[in-house]
Here is the input.
Amino acid sequence: MIRVTDIAYVRFRAPDLDQMEAFLIEFGLSRAAREGDTLYMRGSDPRPFCHVTEKGEAGFAGIGFHAETTDDLARLASSEGATVEDSPMPGGGKILRLTDPDGVPVDVIAGQTPPEALPVLRRLRHNDGETKNRVGAALRIGVSPSQVKRLGHCVLNVTDFRRSESWYKSRLGLVTSDEIELAPGAPLGAFLRCDRGSVHVDHHTLFLVGTGARGFNHAAFEVANLDDLMAGHDHLQKAGRRHEWGVGRHILGSQIFDYWRDPWGHTVEHWTDGDLFNNGTPPNVVGLDDLVGNQWGPPAPPSMGS
Here is the structure.
């Protein structure tokens, strides 16, 4: 077992890379590279890319995670009978290619050369009822897309939750934040996070949902702040993009969310202000109401997860 440090990217296929790039720019990503029939998009954080599209029949093509060192890749490769390769993707480094129990390609990557961070356009100072951080100046949001910082998590529908949970935990070192039960003793899935010891990390990096069938559910991208999320909501709405759910605040993870569909129906989420846990936070077991419920915002539509 190794302990991955974060999610790295999601991979898709689409028949038209121009259409996908146009949507992703409106969504708040920037082009990192376009090499042959592959498009790489990045956020503002200093990571080479977080979204990959390969030309082909539309669909989900896999997921990648960051390992801390290339030695971690070698140890995992040895236990899996696999081979560490040079990564041909932006940022270089080394890559280990695995396949999860449902046949989903899972990459683990390390040793990438990070690019420079992109300027954050909406570094805003907010006043609330107790704290006045902005004085003598007006707040102006500006009209433009949200600015995605990075990929935060991915949600996968799986055929057998316990089997998939065991696979990801035993190889990548993920740990449970919240397990979801349909009824006592009847687990549906779990929010899993990276285990970085005392270092605080996102409430979840991967959410596995035992639907009985393999499938992509959604990928979630962190944006700069609430105003940035709302500006992006207006921008995508005016561009005629397909909105799915939001704006609201989840119960599990606590993040403010806004869900959209790309041109081929893949669900992608903007989020901000999520919970951070470490090894001082014990795992929790909750019911379905906490999964589908909100602290505020509209109810989840029937289309979510399909």
The CA atoms of residues 203 and 249 lie 14 Å apart.
